[in-house]
């Protein structure tokens, strides 16, 4: 085959560093990408079907090209008086579209075995129909294979990394298709969709800011399928990488998310408590506490927001410093902020006995830890100072395993976002 479209891309996971729970109540939170990634391989084929291979959830799903063309002709429901634009799905009636997708799955006799498989297929159809039904291109067979270094349900952004990878792949496929068949500037939209001009003479097919924003918008739609009412923080971190500040106040003239590119690649240990938790229950627990003691909890939440903001400033200061001694002093400030934030989270009642054990053990080794995410179990992270010996890290990990039965994952923070690998 000549001119076969094929490429690889990867997307990072994420970890929330500061401000969990506070962000629900309009305070600042910061999250960062990690060097554990989801990898995607796209290959155009001469087959009469489109295939998705997701071994992490034991799913291989095929759609006949003719069946998919029929679904693309059906399109999706749009808000009254709105015109669809390829740059994002905000004009789509999301709930009605998902209902339609469920009907398509029933018609195609798709019977997934698990909730994860069902969500994955809904997400795949959401992106295929949403992105391809209004693009003026001839559909061909292709395969998408995904593999991931991110454990599912670990609070490290596995679903967001999947969503961003899949959205990026289909968007890049569209770009490659028009690059092969056209030149100059071309309107790739069809039907009643708003014209979308694609510049095809660019030297690089890496993701520009415009395409990163498009990927992020569509990935957020997938996150809504997975989680109902997500904040958008996870998919934003996985798309852009580095450090993301979020404030849900979203004042007029202010951006909800602020990307901080000048962040250091710090080492942390992710510690798994092995305790499952239901995020919504913990969020409701804090809301009830706030309702019962509004003035007191407002002070706690304000302190969490200030802690998150100072942590962001401290990380940026650390990155600017060239003197190692100065960096160590700045790192100590970051460690203090970790302890403060953990104490505030414990005050809100979202810690857990094993999370407390992790903090106590890390303190014994001169390290500092806090929970990440909803709390109540899940993961904690332990900051590793730049001058901390590897043999001491091994001793700490050994103590966690022997004394509490806890396993660790060694990760680096502040890595790049979604990118093409080849």
Automatic annotation (TrEMBL):
SUPFAM superfamilies: GHMP Kinase, C-terminal domain, Ribosomal protein S5 domain 2-like. It is found in: Cytoplasm. GO terms for biological process: cholesterol biosynthetic process; isopentenyl diphosphate biosynthetic process, mevalonate pathway. Residues 136-173 form the GHMP kinase N-terminal domain. One of its GO terms (cellular component) is cytosol. Belongs to the GHMP kinase family. Mevalonate kinase subfamily. It comes from Clastoptera arizonana. The keyword Transit peptide does not apply. It is an enzyme of class 2 (transferase). The lineage of its organism: Eukaryota, Metazoa, Ecdysozoa, Arthropoda, Hexapoda. Its main location: cytoplasm. Pathway: Isoprenoid biosynthesis; isopentenyl diphosphate biosynthesis via mevalonate pathway; isopentenyl diphosphate from (R)-mevalonate: step 1/3. This is Mevalonate kinase. Its EC number is 2.7.1.36. Transmembrane segments: none annotated. The keyword Iron-sulfur does not apply. One of its GO terms (molecular function) is ATP binding. PANTHER family: MEVALONATE KINASE.
């Amino acid at each position: 085959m000549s001119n076969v479209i094929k490429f690889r891309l990867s997307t990072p996971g994420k970890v929330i560093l500061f401000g969990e729970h506070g962000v629900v109540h309009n305070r600042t939170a910061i999250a960062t990408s990690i060097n554990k990634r989801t990898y995607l391989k796209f290959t155009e084929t001469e087959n009469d079907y489109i295939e998705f291979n997701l071994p992490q959830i034991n799913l291989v799903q095929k759609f006949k090209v003719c069946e998919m063309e029929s679904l693309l002709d059906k399109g999706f429901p749009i808000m009254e008086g709105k015109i669809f634009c390829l740059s994002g799905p905000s004009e789509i009636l999301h709930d009605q579209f998902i209902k339609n997708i469920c009907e398509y799955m029933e018609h195609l006799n798709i019977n997934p075995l698990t909730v994860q498989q069902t969500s994955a297929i809904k997400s795949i159809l959401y992106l295929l129909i949403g992105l391809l039904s209004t693009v003026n291109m001839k559909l061909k067979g292709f395969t998408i294979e995904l593999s991931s270094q991110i454990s599912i349900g670990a609070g490290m952004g596995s679903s967001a990394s999947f969503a961003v990878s899949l959205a990026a792949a289909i968007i890049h496929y569209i770009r490659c298709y028009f690059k092969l068949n056209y030149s100059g500037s071309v309107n790739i939209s069809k039907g009643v969709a708003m014209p979308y001009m694609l510049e095809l003479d660019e030297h690089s097919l890496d993701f520009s800011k415009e395409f990163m924003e498009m990927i992020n918008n569509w990935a957020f739609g997938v996150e809504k399928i997975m989680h109902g009412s997500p904040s958008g923080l996870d998919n934003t971190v996985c798309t852009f990488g580095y450090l993301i500040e979020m404030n849900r106040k979203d004042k007029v003239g202010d951006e909800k998310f602020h990307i901080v590119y000048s962040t250091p690649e710090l080492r942390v240990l992710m510690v798994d408590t092995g305790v499952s938790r239901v995020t919504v229950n913990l969020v409701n627990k804090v809301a009830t506490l706030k309702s019962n003691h509004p003035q007191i909890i407002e002070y706690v939440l304000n302190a969490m927001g200030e802690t998150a903001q100072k942590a962001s400033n401290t990380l940026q200061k650390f990155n600017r410093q060239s003197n190692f001694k100065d960096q160590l002093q700045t790192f100590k400030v970051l460690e203090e902020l970790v302890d403060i934030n953990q104490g505030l989270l414990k005050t809100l009642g979202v810690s857990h006995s094993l999370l407390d054990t992790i903090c106590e053990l890390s303190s014994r080794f001169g390290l500092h830890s806090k929970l990440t995410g909803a709390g109540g179990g899940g993961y904690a992270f332990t900051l590793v100072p730049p001058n901390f010996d590897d043999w001491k890290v091994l001793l700490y990990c050994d103590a966690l395993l022997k004394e509490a039965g806890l396993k660790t994952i060694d990760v680096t923070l502040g890595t790049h976002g979604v990118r093409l690998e080849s």
